[in-house]
Amino acid sequence: MIPEIGQFALILALSLALCQGVLPLIGAHRDDAAMMSVARPAAAGQFLFVAVSFGCLIWAFVTDDFSVLYVANHSQLALPTGYKISAVWSAHEGSLLMWLLILAAWTIAVARYSKELPQKFAARVIGVLGLLSVGFLLFALLTSNPFERLHPAAIDGADLNPLLQDPGLAIHPPLLYVGYVGFSVAFAFAIAAMLSGDLDQKWARWTRPWTVIAWLFLTVGIALGSWWAYYELGWGGWWFWDPVENASFMPWLIGTALIHSLAVTERRGLFKSWTLLLAISAFSLSLLGTFLVRSGIIVSVHAFATDPTRGYFILAFLAIVIIGALILYAWRAPALDSAVGFRLLSRETFLLLNNVLLVVAATLVLLGTLAPLIVEMLNGGKISIGPPWFQVAFLVPMLPLIFLLGLGMHTAWRSQDLGPWQRLFRVPAIIAIIVGLIIPLFIYGRVGLLVAVGCIAAVWIVASSLIQPLRSWRRAEGSAGISRSALGMSIAHFGVGFFVLGVTIVSAFGEESDRAMRAGDTIDVAGFQFEMREIRDVQGPNYSAVEGVVEIRRDGEYIGTVRPQKRQYLVQQSWMTEAGIHPTWNKDLFVALGDRIGGGAWSVRIQYKPMIRFIWVGAFIMALGGLVSVSDRRYRQ
Amino acid sequence: MNRFLLPLVAVVVFIPILILGLNTDPRKLPSPYIGKPAPQFELPGLKDPSITVTTASLEGRMTLVNIWATWCVGCRAEHQYLMQLAQQGTIPIYGINWRDSRTQALSWLEQLGDPYVVSGFDADARVGIDWGAYGAPESFLVNPQGIVLYRFAGPLNQAIWEREFQPRILEDAAP
Amino acid sequence: MKPRQQRMLAVGLAALGIAIAAALTLQAFKDNMMFFIDISEVVAGNHPAERAFRIGGLVVDGSVQRQDGSLEMSFRVTDLRCELGVRYSGLLPDLFREGKGVVAHGRLADDGIFVADKILAKHDENYMSPEVAASLAANAATETESAGMNVSGCEPV
Predict the structure, then answer these.
(1) Residues B61, B67, B72, CA angle at the centre, nearest 5°?
(2) How far apart are CA A347 and CA A404, in angstroms?
(3) Chain A residue numbers touching B21 (CB-CB < 8 A)
(4) Which is deepest, A58, A568, B139, C1, by most CB within 10 Å?
(5) CB contact under 8 A, A352 and C9
(6) Is the CA virtual torsion B129, B134, B136, B142 positive or negative?
(7) A76 CB within 8 Å of a chain B CB
(8) What are the two backbone dihedrals, phi and then psi, of residue B104, each rounded to the nearest 5 degrees?
(9) Does the structure show a pLDDT above 60 at C152?
(10) Residues A472, A520: one domain?
(11) CA distance A553 to A560
């Protein structure tokens, strides 16, 4: 019964989404206040029914209702309850339902916080979001019904994929979706502005906080995904340039460009048509990512089960949304050119460069992701593009971006005098060169060109992002101090510096060693002694495992014990490597068990990962910066 | 030309690539045997290794050949439905137990029920490959003359049976 | 700066950025494209000589050999028509098993053995990597069409 209620609620949500999508748009066109006032109640109702539906699916999982096909395929009696809940979004149907829930949640958030916007504009924004909901609801109901029944019911389920039985997976996709879907708000704002034909600085001020919030969730989501991959599948890698990772990274790059371009539009009324195009692209890339992940068009470790009908449906939806938006753009954007100018040395120029470089980076990632597809279609054989290409290609736009970032932050709008500007950077530049060389040379004992460039760049950003907060702190008494918006920017850029430092150090000084180990063996990696004390059998709730007990010492001094496991999950009969990690703030020591290789020995991978935590901490600081900047007074009115 | 049209043009050029990409999905490869006689095979029985299951066993009536294994999750998902087909006498089902261990396969049938008229034991995967199967579960509809009418890759269920199999059975029965 | 000049600057910078990126991309693309070669083709000698490529197929049952307590191992991969020996030293992915699909990166050594530097098992338990699947399915098809005749020098297994 409960699953039927869930499905019925989805159908009701669809009818409400239709009202929400159609009536307010017609109302705004005809200036009919009654029709426009449908927007908010319809959005609230749509959210309610999607939430009911989502609740029904959770209920089916928690109560082990194996008469529901989706539950039977992705859960099992012995699965811990927490994972029964996270299993809801572990595969296509349930994660689509979660996507719908998040879209509806963004919509009511917009409805709630848009009371100060002109009625027509708010009606259009909510209407566009309603149309997007209609598309995804149809997708769920027509091709991916999560409530499909299984007759007769299964006795037990097929279990959740062991890779996904992990707290990282439980929270990473929801956050990622909040980010992905959040770009639909910027998209709806862009469409609403183009429909009304008037786009001013106020528009950018309304759009900015929504975009920043979506961006910060996407940042955290990607960082958690990377962390999950690191300890759960990665054998110690943290980014693999896998198509599915790229699918979330491209909207992030364009979203980052959009945040910066919105700043120019808000402060100076420039780059209007460009900002619109970025708003459309960020959401389009989110849709493209969904398509790539769910159609099975591209080979990937994480790809969902394939179903061509689903692929065609998303592709049709994607085409309608993007082509529709771009036709509107081609029609309306030419009227938006502004007559204000700026000097070559001005913040506008730096933000323009930021945008160009980020767009180039996103284009390169897109190219590398789709290249295998294109080459195969041209009958060029089956190829894959390895991570080395991405690493090199990605550095090309990123290196200049990192250096320009430190300069751009302190350049005045419109026009900047050269003299004071040069003086400002003297101190951070000297600090950057000295500290940037000291870190690799004195801590890690050697330095190469790329390491030096990376470290100097990182310290340069950290130092120059501290200028403004330090100055306002020093003359704090009496002065208004730094605005939240500027403080947020400094924090986010500080996070970028952290991130760059982490990436540089771990790629230059990380060590890895694959060896055979028996109980009692000791191996030396990067100055640490790893002693295999014991290899024993252990039992988990739904798996049995072999566990190594490894003691780590440095020059005889005890540092810690890690317990890597090789688990065999009983229902799916599949093996999983559970790495043992000893984390400290400045390094991770990582041990993973490979295979039993005879004679009582196991193959073991031991890794030394200096400063790897800086990567994720840096990303969280970036997100924190976003949070601080949206709390600025001017967005809270 | 209006430069604001450029993004539109780029997308319009780009979308056909994705459409073609969907069509070249290698997982959609049809079986090379559809409309052709079923491949010749001879397998020892799973329950009783002394009997053999051959192509000739299939002839004379409409049959369903199902490739299954105990390690395969999809097989577990479709098993209940196969039991239902067998209990209702809808169609005789012949199993090919693929890349599996005999003891595990037997205990699976013991626990979950045995929907098969007989299962052949294909430990070295020769026969599964002969049928053009590259995964499990896969099901083949074979008509009384031994011609393969249809192949389905993935777990069977009622909806798929009604949509894909039933019309083909009726069509084949019609003169 | 006048709006016109601004635009010129923007377009100029974008063009420059994209040109540099494109040049580097094309250059690096050629070096980083990893071709997937069917095993029958490798055995017939139709594989890139001087560079790494990928192969894929099923790990032949009973072919995995290793010395006790050593990371060195070898196994054979089949595309159901030809078999190829593979040497590897290192850790294997969790999904690597005899009789299952596998993809290996590496080069062909002078002794005709494929020396893998990376082993992937990017498939789930039910379905294997699409490229491996396509290669196997194609061979299963040609095998019967030619009624077991020797197609390219290898025995149908």
Answers:
(1) 150
(2) 11
(3) 297-298, 373, 377
(4) B139
(5) yes
(6) negative
(7) no
(8) -65, -40
(9) no
(10) no
(11) 7
Average pLDDT over residues B142-153: 84
For residue A37, give its domain range.
1-165
Is residue B87 domain-resident?
yes
Do A446 and A525 lie in one domain? The reply is no
The domain tally of chain A equals: 3
**Do the chains contact at A598 and C67, CB–CB below 8 Å?**
yes
Q: Measured between beta carbons, which residues in chain A are less than 8 angstroms from residue B78?
A: none
Same domain, A76 and A126: yes
SS (H, E, C) chain C: CCHHHHHHHHHHHHHHHHHHHHHHHHHHHHHHEEEECCHHHHHCCCCCCCCCEEEEEEECCCCCEECCCCCEEEEEEECCCCEEEEEEECCCCCCCCCCCEEEEEEEECCCCCEEEEEEECCCCCCECCHHHHHHHHHHHHHHHHCCCCCCCCCCCC
C50-78 burial, b for 16+ CB within 10 Å, e for fewer?
eebbbbbbbbbbebbebeeeebebbbbbb
- Check A341 against C3: CB less than 8 A apart: yes
One-letter identity of residue A153: A
Q: Which is nearest to B128 in space by CA: B163, B145, B102, B153?
A: B153
**Structural domain includes residue B143:** yes
Distance from CA of B174 to the nearest CA of C (A): 30
Mean local confidence (pLDDT), A101-107: 97
CB-CB neighbours of B115 under 10 Å: 23
Residues of B in contact with C157 (CB under 8 A): 126
> Closest-CA residue in chain A for C10?
A352
Q: Which residue has the higher pLDDT, A358 or C31?
A: A358
- Domain of B39 in residue numbering reads as 34-173
Answer yes or no: is pLDDT of A568 > 70: yes
Q: Is residue B20 part of a domain?
A: no
DSSP letter string over A476-516?
TTTS----HHHHHHHHHHHHHHHHHHHHHHHHHH-EEEEEE
Q: Which of A507, A542, A576 is the endpoint of a domain?
A: A507
Share of chain A above pLDDT 70, in %: 95
Tallying the residues shown for chain A, one arrives at 637
pLDDT of res. C157 = 40
Position A49 in a domain: yes
Both A65 and A118 in a single domain? yes
Contact C128 B134 (CB under 8 A): yes
Using the beta-carbon criterion (under 8 Å), do C140 and B130 form an inter-chain contact? yes
Cα torsion angle, C128, C129, C135, C138, sign? positive
Quote the CA–CA distance of A321 and B159 in Å, as a whole number. Answer: 31
Question: How many other C-beta atoms lie within 10 A of the C-beta of residue A525?
Answer: 19
* pLDDT tens string A150-186: 777 777 777 777 777 888 778 888 999 999 999 999 9
Decide if A344 and C35 are in contact by the 8 Å CB cutoff.
no
* Phi/psi of residue A358, nearest 5 degrees: -65, -40
Residue B15 in any domain: the answer is: no
**How many domains are contained in chain B?**
1
Q: Is the pLDDT of residue A305 over 70?
A: no
A466 in B contact zone (CB under 8 Å): no
State the pLDDT confidence band at C142, using cuts at 50, 70 and 90.
very low
**Which of the two residues, A210 and A391, has the higher pLDDT score?**
A210
For A545-559, write each residue's pLDDT tens digit: 999 999 999 998 999
pLDDT digits (tens, 9 = 90+) for C33-70: 788 888 888 887 888 877 888 888 888 878 888 877 78
Higher pLDDT, A419 or A340: A419
Residues A527 and A440 in one domain: no
Total residues belonging to chain C: 157
Instruction: Flag whether residue B103 sits within 8 Å of chain A, measured between CB atoms.
Output: no
User: Which CATH number covers residue B108?
Assistant: 3.40.30.10
Average pLDDT over residues A444-462: 91
pLDDT tens for each residue of A30-86: 999 999 999 999 999 999 999 999 999 999 999 999 889 889 888 888 888 999 999
